[in-house]
Amino acid sequence: MKVQGIVGVLIAFTFAYETYAAQNTTLEDERSVNTKMVQLVWAFVKILAGVVALYYWGLNRKKKSFSDVTASAPTTVQKSVQSSSTEADVLDPELWYIHGVAYDLSEFMARHPGGIRPLMMSRGRDSTELFESYHSLSDSPRNILKKFAVPSKNLKNYVSMFNWDMDAPENAFQKELRQLVREHVSKNKIDTMCPTHLLVANLVWTALTIYCTYKYYWAGEWWSMLVVPTMWWISFVHTFHDASHFALSKNEFITALFVYIYPFFSSPTTWEHQHVIGHHVYTNIFKKDPDLNHGIPYFRLHTRFRYRVWMQFQMLWVWVIWFISTFWLSTVYDWTGVTTGVYHGILPYKKFGNIGMGLHLFGRAVSFFFTFGIPFTLFDSFGKALMWTVSFYSVWGFFFMLITQVNHITEDCVEAGAEPNECWAIHQVQTSHDYAHHSNFWWLLSAGLNLQIEHHLFPGINNNHLIGISPIVQSLCKKYGVKYNYSPTYLEAITKYLRVVQIGATDNSKKANDSKKTA
Question: What is the pTM (predicted TM-score) of this model?
Answer without folding.
Answer: 0.86
